[in-house]
Amino acid sequence: MPNKLKPSERLKIPRQAPIEQDANARRHNFEEVSFGFDENLVAQEMLRCIDCKQPLCVDGCPVRIDIPGFIKLIVEKDYIGAVKKIKEKNYLPAITGRVCPQETQCEAVCPIGKKHLPVAIGKLERFVADYERLHGASDGFPVLEKREKKVAVVGSGPAGLTCAAELAKLGYDITIFEALHAAGGVLRYGIPEFRLPKSILDVEIENVKKLGVDIITNFIVGRTATVDELMDDFGFDAVFLGTGAGTPTFLGIPGENFPGVFSASEFLTRVNFMNGYQFPEYDTPVKIGKKIAVIGGGNTAMDAVRTAKRLGTEKAYLVYRRSRGEMPAREEEVHHAEEEGIEFHMLTNPVRIIAGEISVGDGSSSAGKWVEAMECVKMKLGEPDASGRRRPVEIPGSSFIMDVDTVILAIGQRPNPILQATTPGLGMSKRGTVVVDENCQTSRPGVFAGGDLSRGGATVILAMEDGQKAAAAINEYLEVQKSQIK
User: How far apart are CA 220 and CA 310, in angstroms?
Assistant: First the structure.
């Protein structure tokens, strides 16, 4: 039934809060923090949408989901119809409903947000996606008549999965090549279980496979076969590159090579992808100390410091050189971290990592060294830099020592150079990213790229936007090729 409440009546309804694990309990487990909305909360939240004549939320969504359309279907209690409406533009709704930064996109432009809290679009999206999964209602998506052309998708992260799904719906023969032994890319190795359960990811990947997409794992493009070989020997008519940015960057300060210093990508991969959090059930222990400092202010830093807390460290510090207002991490994740006892050290910048002798069983010291402290300086905010955030400036004479025994660096990542080095003529930037035009076309005909490989580190939904955009461009490219043959 339609929403019969007047807009003025809808505005009086408060934004509903999701059901969540208690902070004292969840800091000791890897179970999902937020359980989202139940049907009662959905029944209240859906009424808050005022059905704008010009829905700005659609413009705020990188993949342009028909948000008013799926909310109307929720009002009618047609939850399956709602998720199908979402899947017209986004084939991974259970993932984006959990990790997409709606607060800076669709919800940021919701008119209700001018005087009240915006409609919880992300939580509604998650609800219908979970409803579909829990009720076994996923029946795939109508696929157009099969086409003769076939496309290789390199990488099975959000960009690759989206590109593959969109092209498969158009009838193309799609094969995804994944370097690791399981699909998902950063969704699997980078995002912790407590934010994105791997069982949810597995279902979303299976839904993509139901479209007819083949996924080949343990296949490193650039080693097992090159891009040229995929096109010349394997017979692919176009290639989409979505291999992400998994190579860590470092601060360049003394002591970064000491034992006890991890990159966030290594740390999270060990825990998430290699099941380190389930030791000894899985034989992949992760050695951490009693006092851990995670350097950075983005979502990866939040994931790393909250993971460290769950692994049993006594003190988990988040060290960031700007203030909280400049942190790029999602506000929800920052709030959850504070609830879980993470200690924030804002306007603080490491300048040196200090190590001491490693003690052995008989009380003597070995020849090696292990992190025992970190020298930091205090910062103040100066003028804005190229990112628009105020540049941090060191305060003279503010040096101090922080007592830590593990340091995790979460200050950004860059693409692995293997693929670029084995693809002649592929344009690259100084940062090592692949250069693309507005349609995700690279300098090589028939080769497209997107996600972190072309953007550098970005969000899941922006990678999906690239996958969607590239799929449309590949379709157009292959249609032109077909017409020229005729």
Answer: 33
What does the mean pLDDT of the chain come to? 93
pLDDT tens column, 424-464: 999 999 999 999 999 999 999 999 999 999 999 889 999 99
Q: Is 248 helix (H, G, I), strand (E, B) or coil?
A: strand
Q: Is 317 helix (H, G, I), strand (E, B) or coil?
A: strand
Domains defined along the chain, listed by start: 7-134 (1.10.1060.10), 150-246+414-485 (3.50.50.60), 250-411 (3.50.50.60)
- Asked whether the beta carbons of 130 and 218 are under 8 A apart, the reply is no
Q: What is the pLDDT of residue 140?
A: 65
The string of DSSP letters for 339-400 reads HTTPEEE-SEEEEEEEEEEEE-TTS-EEEEEEEEEEEEEEEEEEEE-TTSSEEEEEPTT--E
Contact 381, 345 (CB under 8 A): no
CB atoms within 10 A of CB 114: 8
Question: Which strand ranges, in their side-by-side order, compose the sheet holding 214-216?
Answer: 214-216, 173-177, 150-154, 238-241, 447-449
What are the structure tokens assigned to 133, written together?
A: 């999964």
Gap between the Cα atoms of 12 and 31, Å rounded: 34
**Alpha carbon distance 466, 201 (integer Å):** 20
Q: Which long-range contacts (CB under 8 A, 24 or more apart) does 353-361 make?
A: 353/253, 353/254, 353/255, 353/256, 353/258, 353/261, 353/407, 354/255, 354/401, 355/255, 355/258, 355/259, 355/260, 358/259
Q: Is-contact 150 236, C-beta < 8 A?
A: yes
Taking only the tens place, the pLDDT of each residue in 168-192 is 999 999 999 999 999 999 999 999 9
CA 297-460-343 angle, to 5 degrees, is 20
According to DSSP, residue 297 is labeled S
C-alpha to C-alpha distance for 15 and 124, rounded to whole angstroms: 12
Helices H, strands E: what count in the chain?
18, 18
Give DSSP secondary structure letters for 36-74.
E--HHHHHHHGGG----SS-HHHHHSTT---HHHHHHHH
Structure token digits, residue 364: 């003597």
The number of CA neighbours under 13 Å toward the Cβ of 235 is: 4
Mean pLDDT of 466-478: 98
- 275 confidence band (pLDDT: 50, 70, 90): confident
